[in-house]
Amino acid sequence: MPQFFIKADSILSKLYGNDWEKKLQAKELQANFVHMTFLCRHFKRAYQDFFLSGNDLQDKSLSAVANGGGPVSTYLRFGWMLFLALRIHVFSRFKDMVTCTNGLVSILAILILHVPIRYRRFSLDDSTRFVRKCDKGVDLISSLSNIFHASEVDLLETSKVANNLIVEILNKTPRPASECQAEELKDIDTDAFSYFEGLMEESSLVSSIQILEKDYEDAIYDRGELDERMFVNEEDSLFGSGSNSGGSVTVSGVKRKFDSISSPTKTITSTPSPRGSPVASPVKESSATASIKMPPPTPVSTAMTTAKWLRTVIAPLPPKPSTELGHFLSSCDRDITADVSHRARIILEAIFPSSSPGERCVAGSLQSASLMDSIWAEQRRMEALKLYYRVLAAMCRAESNRLRSRNLTSLLTNERFHRCMLACSAELVLATHKTVTMMFPAVLERSGITAFDLSKVIESFVRHEETLPRELKRHLNNLEERILESMAWEKGSSMYNSLIVAKSSLSAEINRLRLLADPLPSLDAIAMQYGAPTAIPQRTEASSDPNVDTPSSPQRLATTVVSNETTGVTGEHNSFVSPVKERSSAFSAFPGKSRQPPLQSAFASPTRPNPYGGGETCADTTIYVFCQKVLKLAAIRIKCLSDRLQQPNLAMEQVYRLLNLVLREQTGIFFNRHIDQVILCSFYGIAKIQLLNLTFREIINNYRKQPQCKPQVFRNVFVESRRYGRSGHETVDIIAFYNRVFIPAVKPLLVKFAPSESSVEQSHGSEDTEKSDGPSPGSPGSSPFQRLPDMSPKKVSATHNVYVSPLRSAKMENLNSHNSKSYYACVGESTHAYQSPSKDLTAINNRLNRSRRVSSRLNFDDPGLVSDSVVAGSLYPSQSSLHLTSDSVLSQSQSQSQSQSVLLASSASPIKHK
What we know:
Blueprint: H1 2-7, H2 9-16, H3 20-23, H4 26-50, E1 63-65, E2 71-73, H5 74-89, H6 97-114, E3 131-132, E4 138-139, H7 140-148, H8 152-170, E5 175-176, E6 194-195, H9 202-220, E7 242-245, E8 248-251, H10 299-314, H11 323-330, H12 337-351, H13 368-403, H14 409-412, H15 415-433, H16 442-447, H17 451-464, H18 470-485, H19 495-502, H20 507-512, H21 523-530, H22 541-544, H23 554-558, H24 599-602, H25 618-645, H26 649-665, H27 675-689, H28 696-703, H29 711-715, E9 717-723, E10 726-732, H30 734-750, H31 757-765, H32 767-770, E11 794-795, E12 803-804, H33 809-816, H34 837-849, H35 868-875, H36 892-901
Antiparallel strand pairs: 1-2, 3-4, 5-6, 7-8, 9-10, 11-12
Helix pairs in contact: 4-6, 5-6, 5-8, 5-9, 6-8, 12-13, 12-15, 12-21, 13-15, 15-17, 17-18, 19-25, 25-26, 26-27, 27-30
């Protein structure tokens, strides 16, 4: 599907405009496809765990042959069609993964009550699976909720709605299950269930499926939606395994992507996840549970485990400020408790509306769709509100301890800060439930903030919520990387409102490109646009918070601070400094802990002096921290790409230093662009100036293998254009951008990396110089890559070519997929057929530790063999055998002249559009 969107981009742009993805909801459609793939696999595995599958059925009348696949049980098909009826008629707007999983589990309960006993795989006497009441039998809802980490209340409600669908669509008459004497109900507590006699009879089952399919066809006929019946008919391998994180969706059957190696901010240790989650540590179980076969984690089970945290940790909290938070709110210059509650109600109502405009009405008992949507929205609002109050109290406590004061007026009266906190809380709730209809950055638009605003609270949010599951931390990390790489550089980002103060020389370009963010919309405007409750009269941001200033004149901002720019590869000062205080360069100071400014400074007016910065403005501190994170993210990606290209460490460090110089002295190169575009051009520029055997095609081909690669990065690069006397913009490929924009702007910086005479002699005279890990001549003392996580393979055996590399986080999703029988990746096939992974690893260890008892090996001491010294001498002649003439080494001036003539990229080999 991603490849189809890329191929059809030009056609769809002509039909629907450049924003066709938003109009056609392409990302939502792709996410829905991935979710349905996961849900169908989850349902099939659950069904096969409880009932006989199509391959096991001897009665062929109860199995149908799937298109291109094996037999599918008719009961399985009935359950899937009943689930689709739930999605169409009940889960109309909020088709999130957690709600759909609850629907599947409730339908599984209906199947357990109605499928004949002879098709069961389970026994109700299994105490490890079923929870039994004293004298009423098995508590089915409680048992299923324990197995699938679901909510008992949600399962009961969904089961009732599913029963109403059976009555409405199939015209079946329900009876209280406690009054029935059916064999399937024996030894089950049936107080909360209804029973439909004859629902699973062979004579009526096929006709019931046909009725459900006809109802489904009528419902989606005019919608143009994906026909979701196909998921139960096809083999799982057709769709591959997918992942959905950070708002971006990947299907590994098409192209596998891996998460980033490290967060651009400080790494925070994750808290243990609940038992059975994919991140739980293997611990020794008691003897009673040691024999239980724990199901391996899947995307669905991971989502349910995360939702369990939200349900057990956040949901029980009160929907109002705690006593501690109330003290902080009342300790301000005025009591702002009512303002905080009112703002939260408006913003969360805009993000989770109770009803949508133009929502269609459904007749009969199916009117429960709008009721379910309202209940769902209210539950999500409460979860986000409680999470917001909880983290806000922890932040206030930390700020109070740091400032030694309980008066936090400048922070707690900041409108932008509260909206960022509300948006972050709502985004975590949406990410927990895997909502398709509200994908990032939808919360930014409904909150009236920008991506750069949200990035200011992400690290603090994670730092002050210790119980946050690892999946949600990973989600916030992905969001922050998206913000740093491109979203903060887009037009309308509030980053430019701070940058124009921190570096006034960029004011002309920022104003010419109209990059400044719009003023923060009022609460009244948001309430009117999204149908939130009518806002009471509130003070505007400028009047309620004297520290927040949103000036309408960018020129007035630009005249506040004049930065002192430095030049040269070995510059020791950052250009984003105030005239009063200088700080070391972001390149030379590569801290293990990111310098996080106080929240009051991060959200104060850009022109306001920073009380903690020794004369700096708040814009200086904000931009400095932002650039530090950008440089760390760039360093991680440069190292990964350099390893793929097998380039020497010297070239890798020079690429980083060039990018650092471009960020400091040619910051406009990043405007409206992706940082990977600058990285790719920097790689090719260094390769040309250093006369390395590296082409743009090789760089692009290896960049395609990067985890964050998107074809739009090297195919659509923003450039300015001028036609018929009018200025505008267009998109070109990466080579055209390199020749037209990058080289003319960066050439004065790039020629400083031309090899000098001494470096040429040194590189020809010693092999160690080329492969040295140390810094290049004239560079700062420490390498910027020393503190990055080393993901390169390590040799673990002195006598065998066996290497071990750390398991990347996203690879775990592929290993957790049930497409493979083993959850360990080994080179080649298994050591023995149908053997467990633990035995495979034992066999590998035994083979590595085996003593060298085999006598039929080559004797390398045999004089008839070629010795290592002979081979080394032929590859690396001694230094005395090298004769360099005076004209074989270019002078510095000749080197720079020659380098300028070869910097341009050849257009004879354009990027091949696959």
